[in-house]
Design a protein that fits this description.
The structure holds two protein chains of two kinds.
Chain A: H1 10-34, H2 39-53, E1 58-59, E2 65-66, H3 71-78, H4 80-97, H5 106-128, H6 134-159, H7 166-197, H8 211-228, H9 235-243, H10 246-252, H11 268-301
Antiparallel strand pairs in A: 1-2
Chain B: H1 5-10, H2 15-18, H3 21-37, H4 43-60, H5 65-72, H6 76-88, H7 92-114, H8 118-127, H9 132-163, H10 168-195, H11 212-231
Helix pairs in contact in B: 3-7, 3-11, 4-7, 5-7, 6-7, 8-9, 9-10
The chains are: A mainly alpha, B mainly alpha.
């Protein structure tokens, strides 16, 4: 799933490189503030461990075998910020030493696997990791990063104009789904074995702020869905057309973003996904303000 | 471990080896950006120019030509499959562009990595603004990558000798044991560091200031990249 150089168009890799530079700078600052010095060799050795663990094959039936990818396991054992730094280090070494993924595309790979991947691993762990659904949380936290990274890679390739016909898209989605399920099963087995050896190696989910991870997930969802959004009219519009009220509906509802498209913007993708992103940001702002008001009221009443 | 070969290549003494890592990294970035900006119409000329750059770099650094060119070809299976899809989707020019661009970019990266020892490369990256924590973690991952991989191979061999093909649970147990051993190793490293007073940052093998040859090289490379980006426009 490592994108080589030459696949992404310049605006796509440049935007993702810029995002990842800011994200990694922020994460490393957080990591260096909270980490004791003793943890730095730990992070490095864990990165090397993820490389080495890929040599141990897991039989998954029908004559094939899978191996650990490790994003979920790193997140559960090191915590999200440290896991993202380790994933970034692994991706950098893969690009430099193994020619696995390009150097200009490194920002895209870091965004897909180290930033969005770790966020996708951490959210189920954060919310379900302590209770009855612990095993489900481990499974979802290992499988989701694979799916998120795959969806992002496909969206970025499509955005760069690489033709991806429907059947190819379907086949690759099925393959990615299979590898996500395998990764989930492997991680559940490894975490079970680790907990038998030492219960504290797998960290208890700490109730830190989930806001950054939630924000990344929401933005990723809005972006990916918008890129793959069908240009066909949706069900409601179709109904309106058939009943013959489409013209009236148009004049009745003078929406700020008609047809969810920004007009006067050149890029086709930007035109379609900008309203989605704007909607996410707007909804987040409203939710944040509401939360503040509610908290203030409760504090005032108490 | 066939990747150790990079360590041997990067310890050479040619003019390209002796340049500052920052000069090589800036040149690499400029050429990669120029290649990325090349439209399909001017791609063949740009590719010929960059291939000449790679070949002359390899000759100048006295590196084994075929071995390096073959090693850069690890990108081709993935590129070729996507290129094939593009070709059948009716976009042959994109198919050619995917193959050429991914292969040439990988060769350029390999040329720089094969002429710069890892400590110098990391120091260069750090001086160009890579966060210090990330530099240290990359250094540690690279240092212990081969050590722990060897350990994993020994475990695989031992398990094959005892059990033949193991099952799913047995593999999970092996990964968990490897995890435990890695944790113990990290703790030993930490003790050794405490005994030696703190984290050792990567120290470059060539401790030289950014001299006139480095400046000249950087300016030439950036100018070549700019010329490439302008001339390949139709």
């Amino acid at each position: 799933m490592h994108i080589p150089d030459g696949f992404l168009s310049t605006p796509v890799w440049a935007a993702l490189d810029a995002t990842s530079v800011v994200g990694v700078a922020w994460l490393s600052r957080g990591a260096s503030r909270t980490l004791e010095e003793s943890r730095i060799p730990l992070l490095g050795v864990m990165g090397a461990f993820v490389f080495a663990a890929q040599m141990i094959n897991f039989p998954v039936g029908v004559g094939t075998s899978g191996h650990l990818l490790g994003c979920g396991l790193l997140t559960f054992t090191l915590g999200p910020a440290a896991a993202a730094v380790v994933m970034t280090a692994i991706l950098a070494i893969q690009a430099l030493v193994f020619q696995d993924g390009g150097l200009l595309a490194l920002g895209a790979n870091v965004f897909n696997m180290a930033i969005a991947g770790v966020a996708a691993a951490w959210l189920p762990w954060r919310y379900l990791g302590a209770g009855r659904f612990r095993r489900l949380a481990v499974f979802a936290g290992a499988a989701l990063p694979v799916l998120v990274a795959a969806a992002l890679v496909l969206a970025q390739l499509r955005l760069s104009g690489v033709p991806l016909p429907g059947p190819i898209l379907g086949v690759s989605l099925v393959l990615f789904l299979a590898s996500a399920l395998v990764e989930g099963a492997i991680t559940v087995a490894v975490v079970t074995a680790l907990e038998k050896m030492h219960p504290r190696w797998v960290q208890a989910p700490r109730h830190g702020s989930a806001l950054p991870a939630l924000a990344v997930t929401a933005l990723v969802l809005a972006g990916v869905v918008a890129i793959f959004a069908s240009p066909l009219p949706d069900g409601l519009e179709k109904l309106a057309e058939q009943v013959g009220i489409a013209d009236r509906a148009q004049s009745l509802l003078n929406a700020p973003l008609p047809d969810y498209e920004f007009h006067g913007v050149d890029s086709d993708w930007l035109r379609r996904s900008a309203p989605g992103l704007a909607g996410v940001v707007l909804t987040a702002c409203v939710a944040f303000l509401l939360g503040r008001i509610l908290v203030r009221q409760r504090q005032g009443g108490a | 471990m066939h990747h150790v070969v990079l360590e041997r290549w990067s310890r050479g003494a040619s003019a390209l080896h002796r340049l500052d890592a920052r000069a090589k990294l800036i040149a690499l970035f400029a050429l990669l950006v120029a290649l990325s900006l090349t439209p399909p119409a001017g791609l063949l000329r740009a590719a010929a120019f960059l291939l000449a750059v790679v070949l002359s770099g390899l000759v100048c650094a006295r590196l084994p030509l075929t071995q390096l060119l073959l090693r850069a070809a690890v990108v081709l299976p993935f590129s070729a499959s996507v290129a094939l899809v593009s070709w059948f989707a009716g976009d042959p020019s994109r198919a050619i562009s995917l193959l050429l661009k991914s292969y040439l970019s990988a060769s350029l990266v390999l040329l720089v990595v094969a002429t710069t020892p890892m400590p110098d490369l990391l120091t260069g990256l750090k001086r160009l603004g890579l966060p210090a924590v990330l530099t240290l973690v990359i250094q540690f991952v690279y240092r212990y990558l081969f050590v722990i991989s060897e350990q994993a191979q020994h475990m695989r061999l031992a398990s094959a000798a005892r059990l033949g093909a193991g099952g799913f649970r047995i593999s999970a147990g092996a990964v968990a044991v490897l995890f435990a051993r890695s944790l113990a190793r990290a703790e030993h490293i930490h003790w050794a560091m405490l005994a030696r007073c703190g984290v050792s940052t990567p120290r470059p093998l060539l401790a030289r200031p950014f001299g006139p040859p480095d400046v000249l090289f950087t300016v030439c490379a950036v100018a070549a990249a700019a010329a490439l980006a302008i001339l390949s426009r139709p």
